[in-house]
Design brief:
- There is one protein chain.
- With 331 residues, this protein is an alpha+beta fold.
- It folds into two domains: 108 residues, Phosphorylase Kinase, domain 1, CATH 3.30.200.20; 204 residues, Alpha-Beta Complex (Aminoglycoside 3'-phosphotransferase, Chain: A, domain 2), CATH 3.90.1200.
- Helix content is 40%, strand content 15%.
- Helix 4 runs antiparallel to helix 5, helix 5 runs antiparallel to helix 8 and helix 8 runs antiparallel to helix 9.
- The longest helix has 20 residues.
Amino acid sequence: MMKLRHLFHNPDLAEMLLKNWDYDETSLEMFQYYRISANAIYPFRQKGGICFLRFCPASEKRKETIEAELEFIGYLRGAGYPAAEPLPSKTGANLVQKSTPWGEYYACVFKRVSGQPISETSCEDEVMFAYGAALGLLHKLSSENTAPKIKRWTYEDVFNWIEETLSCLPGGTSPLDELRLLRDYFSRRPTNGGRYGLIHYDFELDNVFYDHATKSCSVIDFDDAMVHWYGMDIDQALDSLQSEIAEDQFPRAKAVFIEGYRSQYGIDDDLFAAMPLFRRFAMLYRYTRITRSIQERWENEPEWLAGLRTKLTGALASASEHFGKAIQAVP
C-alpha cells in the first residue's frame, strides 16, 4: 500500500499521464471508477475496448521492479499464458516515467482481461480447478524461465526492505524479532528441486478472472512478483479463498484447487507443513507496509481518510498476532 498522501483521487494527474497513450476522449468520464491502493488504477477506453491506466509515484516503487514485472509478463504471454496484456505508449514503451506537478511518476496501461474476478463467482468446482491450474501453470513456466534479463526482487530483498523500513518507524522490537526468526528459517530452506522461483505473490481471488465460456482463467496485477518459494503463492491463494467462502465449503474448494494445481505442476504433501511460515512472511510484510503507510497525519482529514486509518490500524493487530512465537521444526 502507498503512503496515505498518495490515495487522493487526482483525475488531472491521471489525464496528464494517460496522454502518453492513445485513448477515446469521451472515456475520461470512466475515471470516476478509479481505485487506489498499491497503485492508482483508472479505467478508460482505447478504440472502444476497456483498458486500465496504472501509475504510482517514483518514491513508492523501484523502476527496475516494474521493468522486471513487465519482462516476466512478456515471457508468460510469449509462452501462451493468459496474463494481462500491457499496451505500448505512443513512443512504443510499456513503462513511462514522467515529471508532473505532483512529482515523478511511473505509468503503464493494461488491456482488460476476459471473464469476471473469481471473488464474484460462486467458486464452484470448475472455477476452483481452473484457479489452481492457472497457478500451477504459472509456476511451471516460472521454473523454466532460467535466464531473466532483469534482476528480480527476492524474498531477501523484502527482508532487507522490512528491516530498513521498521528501523525508522515506531512499533517496538516485536516486528524486528519476527524478522530475525523468519530470516533464520528461510535462510535454511532449500531452493532446489523446482520449488523456488519467480512467483506472483498476490494470486488472490480478485486478481484472477474466470471466463465461463472458455472455462479458463486470466491473471492480472503482477506488481508484487518476487523470487520466493512457490508455496508462498499457494498459501496466499488459499488464504484469500478461505476468507471469501463459507467455512464448510473451504475443504472441498481447497481440494479441487490443489487438484487443478497438480494437473499442471507437482506439489509435495510436506509443503503444507511449511504454510504457517509463509503466512507469517505475508503478515510481517503486510504489517510493515501498513505501518509505513499510516505514519503521516494531518489536521482535518476527510472522513474517508480517517476511517481508512482506523481500519488499517486495526489490521495491524491481526498482522502481528504471531510475532516472536517460536518456529516449530518444519520442512
